[in-house]
Amino acid sequence: MPKPNIVFIFSDQQRPDTMGYAGDPVAITPNLDRLASQGMVFSQCATSSPVCMPARASMMTGYQVHQHGVWAFADPELRHGQSHVRNIRDVGYRTGVVGKTHLWRHGDGHASSHVEEMQDWGFVDAREVTGPSESLKTDSSYTDHLAAKGFLNTHRQYFEMYLKGERPFPWELPPTQLPAEDHLDRYIAELAQQWLGDCPTEQPFYLQVNFGGPHDPWDAPNEYRSLYNADDIPLSMNEPRSGPLSPHVQLLLEHAPNKLHNMSAAQNRVMKSNYYSKVTLIDDCVGRIVNKLEQLNILDNTWIVFSSDHGEMLGDHGLLAKKVFYDGAVTVPCLFRPPQNEKSDASSEPASSQAKSMNSSLTCHLDVVATLVDICGAAPLQDSDGRSVLPQLRGEQTGPHRSAVLAELGLPPSAFMMVRTDQHKLCVDAINRQPIEQYDLGADPNELHNLIDNPAYAKLRGELINDVLAPMLSTLDTSLW
User: Which of 125, 127, 121 is nearest to 62 (CA)?
Assistant: First the structure.
């Protein structure tokens, strides 16, 4: 049997619970639901960092943030270290990326000038564009496309409105003024379809498809917005809290728009419906890629993996975006749909028949990377804590995957860390290891009651720091920040 292909779809700022397969009562995600029905979803997958560039550096290298040192902004020199893409390329795969990588800092210039960087990372064929907001200043094939169709000024005027002082509240944001087929995410889907069509048939491939959405602005075209009735949208979680606020949560609340704290129920529902419409836009794009694989008659020998760099608070706890350790920001989608012609080593049944399930084992970004490498038979990444989930996907392992996950957040000059087990979450100041947040997730799944001052949990705090967190930080170098 030929080596399997992989399409790794990586969205930006996507919550794992806003999909139909996750039980969301209103989400319209038929394409992702179909993939989930054919594979396995890991419902408790943690990002390495609830910030874009650090999370993406971890995904590329297999390192925790404290190992690669990208606490805030991308480091161009990091590409000279290890890369899971290079390891996959070196076992005979044609490697490629379309869309946003966020592996370099954006500014004036054109994304095509970074092709050599992408090749250093291991991408044989890179067709990169920027994220939505970055396209205001940084050119790419996407802005070239808009310019050729006479839409570039329309696009940039929208983002000048959004980013330069005229920024409306999320429930007031108008949809894009572009035709739906010219929206950035639809363009990235088209790039992916073109890449697949251009790929030689005699060589297995590994393609990353990196969407710009559903990251704000929630600007989905009207044809997607019209799919939702705001009155049907559940409200954000804003129940009363107890216990102290952590420093980074306090900072974000202080900088949140004042009007956000007084958001009405109707405004909240409209805001969330705008986000959902962009989630459905991404789902539509996923469907277009799957259809292309079917047209090329290669879907049955292709793994499809879906994840995101971090989540979105979406009004929970009075917050938007990320940069906190609440589950809304830290937990990410993690979906593996195996080739439908793959046989399990443990059974004569197709692997897909074993994988139609939700798996609540703790997993993380590094596990996704380790699994991609494992699927290809490539060399494992050195000094990485990533652990392949391929045994679980093949039905060869049924117990817990790992006992704890780590996430790290740099807000220079400060840095913070979170360790999570099945039942508990503890956040600490990275420099002095002082606890700042503690939640009993079994009793308090919405993370409303910070127990950091509760003496009844003091012993557990010490155990989490000394027995769980400390070993995970054995390679911590504070000079990196």
Answer: 121
pLDDT at 430: 85
Sequence-ordered list of residues with C-beta below 8 angstroms from that of 146, at least 6 positions apart, any chain: 152, 154, 155, 178, 182
Residue closest to 11 by CA, chosen among 145, 179, 188, 134: 188
CATH superfamily assigned to domain 5-403: Alkaline Phosphatase, subunit A (3.40.720.10)
State the Cα–Cα distance between residues 103 and 87, nearest whole angstrom: 18
Residue 198, token pair as written in the block: 């251009």
Q: Pull the structure tokens for residue 287.
A: 């469907």
What burial letters (b/e) apply to 60-75, b meaning 16+ CB within 10 Å?
Answer: bbbbbbbbbbbbbebb
Give Dmax over CA atoms of the chain in angstroms.
65
- Distance from C-alpha of 120 to C-alpha of 100, rounded to nearest angstrom: 16
Phi, psi torsion values for 143, nearest 5 degrees: -65, -30
The dihedrals phi and psi of 303, each to the nearest 5 degrees, come to: -75, 135
Measured between alpha carbons, how far is 306 from 417 in angstroms, rounded to an integer? 25
Domain ranges of the chain: 5-403
Q: What is the mean pLDDT of each run of 10 residues along the chain (481 residues)?
A: 93 96 96 96 97 96 93 88 97 97 91 94 97 92 97 94 80 94 98 96 96 96 97 94 91 74 92 97 98 97 98 94 95 96 43 59 97 97 95 86 93 89 94 92 96 94 89 66 50
Rounded distance, CA 439 to CA 448, Å? 8
DSSP character at residue 132 = T
Q: Which two tokens stand for residue 437?
A: 């947040």
R_g over Cα of the chain: 21
Q: Residue 266's CB: how many other CB atoms inside 10 A?
A: 11
Q: Which two tokens stand for residue 307?
A: 């994840």
Q: How far is CA 33 from CA 39, 82, 228, 282, 359, in A?
A: 10, 34, 18, 13, 15
Q: Which helix (H) or strand (E) holds 246?
A: none
- Which of 335-361 are b and which e, b meaning 16 or more Cβ less than 10 Å from the residue's Cβ? bbbbbeebebeeeeebbbebbeeebeb
Contact 366, 380 (CB under 8 A): no
In whole angstroms, give the CA distance from residue 312 to residue 14.
6
Going by the DSSP 8-state scheme, the letter that residue 342 receives in this structure is P
CA distance 401 to 360: 9
Strands 5-12 and 334-337: unpaired
